[in-house]
Amino acid sequence: MPHSDDTSFPVSETSRIRRYHERGSHERQAVYAVLDASPICHVGYVIEDQPYVTPTLHWRLGDRIFWHGSSASRFLKQTREHKVCLTVTLIDGFVLARSAFNHSVNYRSAMVFGVAHQLTDPAEKEASLKAMTEDFYPGRWDKLRPITAQEIKATAVLYMDIAEASVKVRSGPPGDQAEADFPVWAGLVPLQTILSDPRVDGDPDHPLPVLSARLGAKT
């Protein structure tokens, strides 16, 4: 698996941060932090000059990001061996200012670029699907009914090695303190994603699963 001791991803005209560059970074750890904070990503690709963006679950091992779906998926068939752009965005709060123009959101967003490849070896596919399950539900894979050869065949697993990446983050209150005398409420409304109480399906005596913080679990 590709690995680099560099602390930052390379930068080109594709990944260079142009607007609000002070909020941005190409540092690997900053990119990883955003990718790992959300289970959902969006993959952008082109089929016959038509752009598409598809949401999917993702998981990361080093500089390699994985996603999966049906082996019959047009999306997965068309993206393999092609350049893709994968993004993750998390909203941390709504920023209410004294003017409509200065309203904003606090967010964390990562954009990564690379070429999509498909795993074809059944053992590698199973190992990758186990890594996904353990990423979301630590310790659960070995307790489940074993995956079958047909299930592995029916599942496509794609991956990309991150060639370039950038991250942008906005945090804090409104940036219009110069208008603080205007008589309207201004401030920050935080937004969180959390898990509610599990709903049992079957034997209630089984212990509840361990859930990853990526799913909104409290840590």
Tell me the layout of helices and strands.
Layout: E1 24-25, H1 28-37, E2 40-47, E3 50-61, E4 64-70, H2 74-79, E5 83-96, E6 104-118, H3 122-136, H4 149-154, E7 155-161, E8 164-170, E9 187-190
Antiparallel strand pairs: 1-8, 2-3, 2-5, 3-4, 4-7, 5-6, 5-9, 6-7, 6-8
How many structural units, i.e. domains?
Answer: 1
How many helices? The count is 4
CATH class: Mainly Beta
Q: Strand-and-helix sequence, N→C? A: EHEEEHEEHHEEE
Low-confidence regions: 1-5
**Total DSSP E strands:** 9
Primary descriptors:
about 220 residues; alpha+beta; Pnp Oxidase, Chain A; about 35% strand; disordered N terminus
Description:
The chain is α+β, with helices and mostly antiparallel strands. The chain has one domain (21-174): Electron Transport, Fmn-binding Protein, Chain A (Pnp Oxidase, Chain A). The chain has 4 helices and 9 strands, in the order βαβββαββααβββ. It has helices spanning 28-37, 74-79, 122-136, 149-154; strands at 24-25, 40-47, 50-61, 64-70, 83-96, 104-118, 155-161, 164-170, 187-190. The protein has a 6-stranded antiparallel beta barrel with strand order 2-3-4-7-6-5. Strand 2 (40-47) and strand 3 (50-61) form a beta hairpin. The protein is globular, with a radius of gyration of 20 Å. It starts with 23 loop residues before the first strand and ends in a 29-residue tail after the last strand. The model is unreliable at 1-5 (pLDDT under 50).
Question: What is the gist of this entry?
Answer:
The chain has helices spanning 28-37, 74-79, 122-136, 149-154, and strands spanning 24-25, 40-47, 50-61, 64-70, 83-96, 104-118, 155-161, 164-170, 187-190. The protein is of the alpha+beta class and 219 residues long.
